[in-house]
Design goal:
Helices cover 26% and strands 14% of the residues. By secondary structure, it is of the alpha+beta class.
């Protein structure tokens, strides 16, 4: 299992002695336009079935809702009203709104780009392309009883659906709620799969982003990053991306966009940092992310120690009772 908490190199912990450099994503939500090209590219490359009937949710312009077994990349549309904006302004924070999409020539207004924090008195629209975090210490990987999840030479976490028994332990073990069991489609073992997409839908087993492992081994970048038209999704060596992310935050702060902050770049958090770093424009909870994620196995050493002390205490009490009864 390797190290359970703190900074470490996940591929080395997994036994890769001649591993590649750790790969990951840097998702810059400040330049995401919500086009969902990454979402479509992910589904197309991985042959994932569609989620639902693609109608708007009613509470948002979004039509997929969240990450799931069939949606490994999800673009969240976060619409905020006056109450949320006033609450944020009370703390003195400078808000950033991504605005409403418009076509040049749609009206007589000036289309000159504005780089400063826009005035958002009544409405703010944020967007974020969410994905599996590929944690340094992955709870899903640590609790899997069958070995269906494994750590790749790139430091990422992949599910082998032909090994998974559908127990769902990994679903509970993920602090981000990323892993899900697919419940639609037609089950097919690897021997029965054909080139027809319908036969690739696997049901009852855990599914999540693989960071396009099949593309990485061929020296190709993941489909979502390759498709993103604004380079909001950046792929590369994890350490280099972390440097780029910090430079981007400094740039936004210099422009007066003080709301910009990184998520997942702290190696001393509860999951040892994540492989998918995010630049956010509001608090993590706004994007549906836990503010302080913690892998479920981090406390195992303390738990074992306390269990041992309790067992020793019970043994001592039993021995004392036996001795007094003589």
């Amino acid at each position: 299992m390797g190290q359970l908490s703190g900074p470490t190199e996940p591929a080395t912990d997994a036994g890769w002695t001649e591993g590649e450099s750790r790969k990951g994503f840097f998702t810059d939500t400040s330049i995401c336009i919500g086009c969902k090209a990454c979402e479509v590219a992910c589904k197309e490359w991985n042959r994932n079935p569609r989620d639902g009937d693609l109608e708007l949710l009613g509470s948002s312009y979004d039509n997929t809702g969240s990450l799931g077994a069939s949606t490994w990349r999800h673009v969240a549309f976060i619409e905020q009203g006056r109450d949320r904006i006033e609450e944020a302004r009370e703390s003195g924070r400078a808000l950033i709104g991504l605005g409403m999409p418009a076509m040049p020539g749609s009206d007589d207004s000036d289309m000159t780009p504005f780089v400063g924090p826009p005035d958002t008195p009544e409405f703010r629209w944020l967007m974020s392309s969410d994905v599996c975090k590929h944690c340094t210490h992955a709870g899903c990987l640590d609790v899997c009883p069958t070995g269906a999840l494994f750590r790749t030479e790139f430091g990422t976490v992949v599910v082998q659906d032909d090994v998974c028994n559908g127990c769902g332990t990994c679903v509970a073990g993920c602090p981000f709620g990323v892993v899900e069991r697919r419940s639609d489609g037609t089950y097919a073992t690897s021997e029965r799969k054909s080139d027809r997409i319908a036969h690739d839908f696997v049901t009852g087993v855990a599914q999540k982003c693989t960071l396009c492992y099949d593309r990485l081994v061929e020296d190709q970048i993941p489909a979502c990053a390759k498709t993103c038209p604004t380079t909001s999704i950046k792929f590369g060596n994890h350490d280099e991306l972390a440097v780029q992310a910090r430079e981007r935050v400094a740039q936004l702060h210099a422009q007066g966009r003080t709301e910009a902050r990184l998520y997942g770049a702290n190696e001393r958090d509860g999951v040892g940092g994540i492989g998918s770093i995010f630049l956010l424009l509001d608090e993590p909870e706004v994007y549906g992310l836990p503010p302080d994620p913690r892998v479920c196995t981090a406390d195992l050493p303390t738990m074992f120690k306390r269990a041992g002390m309790a067992a020793a205490g019970m043994f001592g009490a039993a021995a004392l009772a036996f001795w007094r009864s003589r």
